[in-house]
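Deliverable D5.2: sample structural annotation.
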Amino acid sequence: MRTTFFSLIFLFSILSYSQDVLIGKFCSNLSEQKTISTIQERCITFNNDGSFAEEIRLDVDIILTGKYLFSDNLIALTYDDEKNETSILKIIKISDKKIVFKYLSKDRSSKKIILYKSIQ
């Protein structure tokens, strides 16, 4: 019984830490945006309450919002739009300074995208 309790606490602490690393604003490096010439900057802000905001700077700013779910190195982004579209991000690397992922959705590029933790 005692071993099970400590195992559950340990697993919960690992999951909590993983979630905490994701919280915050992550933005692209402008020099790495050469793959899509029209995007000047991309930022995703992950909030504690499970919501997110994705900001894409083109000639105009586009802000998309929704809810996210993070588990098993995957992030599911469900957008607050008429279609309630969901994008799946496969996490390649995540740390307190950057996140590297690929889109698994059919309509998105499968190239690596690197976002760096924004200092606010």
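Annotation notes: The chain has one helix and eight strands. The chain has one domain: 2-117.
The annotation will be released with the project's public dataset once the embargo ends.
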